[in-house]
C-alpha cells in the first residue's frame, strides 16, 4: 500500500505584484516559476506563478497569486520551505528585498527553522532537517 500523503496538498502565497514576487522567489530558491491565468470564482482572472511540481512527488506544491481577493499578510498561515542552507537562503532573501524576522533557530530533533518577510509582506519560513 502506498504511504498516506501529508495533509497539505497545495498552498497559495498572496501577492500585490506578481512579477516582483516571482523574481524574489526565483532568486531566493534558485527555481523557475511558470506564469498562468485561471478563472476566478468572481469571474476575474487569477494571475498565478506556479512553483515546480512533480507528479507523483512528496510534499506540497503551490503558487504565487495576484487577485483582489488575495491579500499578503504577516499574521496568517506560515508556509515552510525546505532548504539545505538556512543562513545562505536568508542572505539571498535579503539581497532580493526580503527581511529576516527570526534567524536560524534550532528545534531539537526536528532540525532548524527561520522566518522571513518576502517582498509582498508575507511571513514565510525556512526549515532544514538536523545534520546527521
Q: Whole-number radius of gyration?
A: 15 Å
Main beta sheet, described? 4 strands, mixed
Distance between the termini: 29 Å
Number of strands: 8
How many DSSP helices? 2
In which order are the strands of the major sheet placed? 1-4-3-2
Outline the low-pLDDT stretches: none
SS strand fraction: 35-45%
Q: Overall 3D geometry?
A: globular
Oligomer: single chain
Query: H/E element string?
Result: EHEEEEHEEE
Structural class: alpha/beta
The level of helicity is 10-25%
Average pLDDT across residues? Answer: 93
Model description:
A 4-stranded mixed beta sheet has the order 1-4-3-2, covered by helices on one side. The chain has a 4-stranded mixed beta sheet with strand order 5-8-7-6, covered by helices on one side. The model has no long low-confidence stretch (mean pLDDT 93). The relative contact order is 0.22. It has helices at 18-29, 86-95; strands at 10-15, 34-39, 45-50, 61-66, 80-82, 99-106, 112-117, 123-128. The chain is globular. It is built from 2 helices and 8 strands. It is of the alpha/beta class and 132 residues long.
Question: What is the gist of this entry?
Answer:
This protein has 132 residues and is α/β, with parallel strands linked by helices. The chain contains two helices and eight strands. 17% of the residues lie in helices and 36% in strands.
Amino acid at each position: 500500500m502506498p504511504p498516506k500523503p501529508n495533509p497539505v496538498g497545495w498552498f497559495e502565497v498572496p501577492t500585490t505584484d506578481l512579477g516582483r514576487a516571482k523574481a524574489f522567489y526565483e532568486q531566493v530558491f534558485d527555481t523557475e516559476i511558470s506564469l498562468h491565468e485561471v478563472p476566478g470564482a468572481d469571474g476575474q482572472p487569477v494571475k498565478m506563478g506556479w512553483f515546480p511540481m512533480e507528479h507523483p512527488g512528496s510534499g506540497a506544491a503551490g503558487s504565487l497569486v495576484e487577485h483582489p481577493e488575495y491579500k499578503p499578510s504577516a499574521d496568517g498561515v506560515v508556509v515552510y520551505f525546505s532548504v539545505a542552507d538556512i543562513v545562505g537562503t536568508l542572505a539571498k532573501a535579503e539581497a532580493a528585498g526580503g527581511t529576516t524576522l527570526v534567524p536560524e533557530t534550532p528545534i531539537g530533533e526536528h532540525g532548524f527553522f527561520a522566518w522571513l518577510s518576502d517582498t509582498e509582506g508575507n511571513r514565510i519560513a525556512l526549515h532544514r532537517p538536523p545534520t546527521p
